[in-house]
Structure formats: C-alpha cells, structure tokens
Design a protein that fits this description.
CATH superfamily: Histidine kinase-like ATPase, C-terminal domain
Distance between the termini: 37 Å
Structural class: alpha+beta
Largest sheet: 5 strands, antiparallel
CATH class: Alpha Beta
Order of helices and strands: EHHEEHEE
Helix content: 25-40%
CATH architecture: 2-Layer Sandwich
CATH topology: Heat Shock Protein 90
Number of strands: 5
Strand content: 25-35%
Strand order of the largest sheet: 1-2-3-5-4
Shape: globular
Radius of gyration: 14 Å
Length: 132
C-alpha cells in the first residue's frame, strides 16, 4: 500500500490508552458518515480502526500519544494509527488480528519508521443502491 501523501485532512491525538479508542472509533464513523458510507461500511471501519488501535497500543511505550490521521476521498478513507513504539512480531498473514484487518479493510500495511509504529488502512465504501 502506498504511503498517503500530503497533509492529512483530519488528525487526532489521544493518550495511548485503550479507554480512548472509543473516541477514535466514533470519529472514524462520523467522518465516514459524511462520505455517505453505508451502515455496514461504517461498522467495518469502526472495527478496523479499533483493531489497528489495539495492535498499535500493544507496541507503544507508556505515557505517549496515539495519533490517527485521516485522508478522505470521495468513496474511501485512509487511516493511519501510530504511536512511538517498537516493531513487534506483528502483521504476519496467519496472525488473527491481521486477518481481521485484512477482511475489514481494502488494504492494510504496517511499518516502523524512526521509532514510530504505524498501521495504515484503506477502507472503501460500497456504492449506494439507487431506487428505481
């Protein structure tokens, strides 16, 4: 998956604590609703962001911020969740958490650059059905 270019449309910083993941999931759903994602697509995005956040939190250091960046497109959202941390043995295709991400997102990637651990997701919306 290519790294998103340019400044993110939305950036959110939260304490790297699982108690704040619900805020991130709700923000993701709110942004997707503005793009007319279906309810199923909204829920897929919420679950994918929650799973990515849990994976990043597992690799992060104590007392740091979790950062979420959102790039909005007409029918898709790219989300990068990151925090300072170490690269764990994560992202293997047979890992259950990674399987969940691969199922929910159109594309998913993991990277560790300059001590910052990040998971990037591309989640697209199904076309809305038009009535006859």
């Amino acid at each position: 998956m290519p790294r998103p270019s340019g400044r993110a449309d939305v950036e959110l910083r939260l304490p790297a604590d699982s108690a704040y993941v619900s805020v991130l999931r709700t923000t993701s759903a709110g942004l997707a609703a503005r793009l007319d994602f279906t309810l199923d697509d909204l829920e897929d995005l919420r679950m994918a962001v929650g799973e990515a956040s849990a994976m990043v939190l597992g690799a992060s250091h104590d007392g740091v911020d979790l950062t979420a960046e959102f790039w909005l497109d007409r029918r898709a959202i790219t989300v990068r969740v990151s925090a300072p941390g170490e690269t764990p043995e994560l992202g293997a295709e047979d890992d259950f958490a990674w399987q969940v991400l691969a199922t929910l997102a159109s594309e998913a990637s993991v990277e560790c650059v300059d001590g910052r651990y990040a998971i990037t997701l591309l989640v697209g919306a199904a076309p809305l059905e038009t009535g006859a």
